[in-house]
Amino acid sequence: MPAVCVGDCGFLVDAGSLALDWATLGAKTGRxxxxxxxxxxxxxxxxxxxxxxxxxxxTNNTCRTQSVEYQGFAPFIRMxxxxxNNWSRAFxxxxxxxGDPDLRGPHNGDTYVRAxxxxxxxxxxxxxxxxxxxxxxYTARVAPGQTLTMRHIYYWKTDFFTRHDINWVNLPWIGIRxxxxxxxx
Length: 185
Known about the structure:
Layout: E1 11-14, E2 17-20, H1 22-25, E3 28-39, E4 49-59, E5 66-81, E6 85-96, E7 111-117, E8 127-134, E9 138-142, E10 147-160, E11 168-182
Antiparallel strand pairs: 1-2, 3-11, 4-10, 5-8, 5-9, 5-11, 6-7, 6-10
């Protein structure tokens, strides 16, 4: 076996015996978090606007191609609104092995949280929702020496906006996590 395939590639050679180094061959995991957004929406936003994001890098420093699964998450998003509001929040995950991925806007397949409290509701009434957030799982193949850049972005827009003292959004933080496993031969 060539020496380049022994060192740092999951093999140990000791007194002529070849053994597996499971720490090197096994799964690698990582995660990152960033501050979310908490506050009262102050205006109508008819198009999606990014409010916060988190970035995470995985470099394949093994001699085998890795299959990397990555996913965005947040503990919850809570939205409280008075009558006449229709809000959309989107959680977008992008990844690239060619540098920082483009910050594209939301599209089909992304994770959305919507809340609506129509204008015909009684004065003083409000809608209050709270839900955990998990995006779908994305997968990338990362060759030896390559770096996968992953990003989770939080977007918001308001299809209809009416100012109320009760209007409020709470997203404490957002995160992204990955798990890398060697690709089978």
